[in-house]
């Protein structure tokens, strides 16, 4: 019977199961994710080579001018050394790790989840998937609020493949796209796009893309040549007047 059970377990029947239990489901950047991984033995003993936790998000990749939905691994965490789980044994292993600074906020179509897997030799590896909510930091939320107070409406939020010069740091970037709603900005700008490059408890760094509205023949030629987009790199601390600083630099790009 034991040999038969081992054969069945190797194809996933009566094999060990895994269930990750998070201490909470909502986080902000720079927080630690913590919980326990519960492993329940199957109908026979099995060698667990590794338990790993991977942090995933969804994003859009462009290939030959086509937008393809994809998934990215933002962080991988190995939990333990090899051990044997006995039949019907229940074991809990606590864990804690920091959220990487590249994790996107879960708004719009953005999703973030933790996938837990058991690495079992010569067997189907059991997996578990847990979605979590990521909220912006206080400073990041201050930036987004300031832009809307200036007279912009958040039109969409997308996770996109990072440009080549950023891929060593992150596979994806999250882009917040705003459109002007008041006459001052609507006269000069088509849209405003924001990417958060780095966030810490005391500062936030952003890349702002200002897309100027075409004015006259020269303006239309600039749009056709993609010369109408200006980029601004800004860092804010907790003592900054975020809205005033944004207004000042954006207005210089409107001239």
TrEMBL record:
Top-level taxon in the UniProt lineage: Bacteria
InterPro entries for this protein: Spore_0_M
PANTHER family tied to this protein: SPORULATION-CONTROL PROTEIN SPO0M
Name assigned to this protein: Stage 0 sporulation protein M
């Amino acid at each position: 019977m034991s040999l038969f059970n081992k054969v069945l377990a190797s194809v996933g029947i009566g094999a060990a199961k895994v269930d990750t239990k998070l201490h909470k489901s909502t986080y902000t950047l720079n927080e630690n994710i913590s919980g326990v991984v519960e492993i329940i033995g199957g109908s026979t003993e099995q060698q667990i080579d590794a338990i790993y936790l991977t942090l995933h998000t969804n994003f859009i990749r462009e290939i030959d001018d086509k937008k393809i939905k994809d998934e990215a691994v933002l962080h991988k965490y190995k939990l333990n050394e090899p051990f044997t789980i006995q039949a019907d044994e229940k074991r809990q292993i606590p864990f804690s790790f920091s959220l990487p600074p590249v994790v996107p906020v879960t708004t719009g179509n953005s999703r973030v989840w933790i996938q837990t897997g058991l690495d079992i030799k010569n067997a189907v590896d059991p997996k578990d998937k847990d979605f979590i909510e990521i909220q912006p930091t206080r400073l990041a939320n201050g930036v987004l609020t300031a832009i809307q107070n200036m007279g912009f409406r958040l039109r969409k939020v997308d996770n996109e493949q990072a440009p080549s010069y950023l891929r060593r740091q992150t596979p994806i970037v999250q882009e917040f796209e705003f459109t002007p709603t008041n006459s001052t900005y609507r006269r000069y700008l088509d849209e405003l796009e924001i990417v958060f490059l780095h966030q810490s408890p005391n500062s936030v760094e952003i890349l702002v893309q200002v897309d100027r509205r075409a004015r006259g023949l020269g303006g239309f030629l600039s749009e056709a040549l993609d010369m109408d987009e200006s980029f601004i790199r800004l860092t804010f601390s907790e003592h900054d007047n975020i809205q005033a600083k944004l207004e000042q630099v954006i207005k210089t790009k409107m001239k």
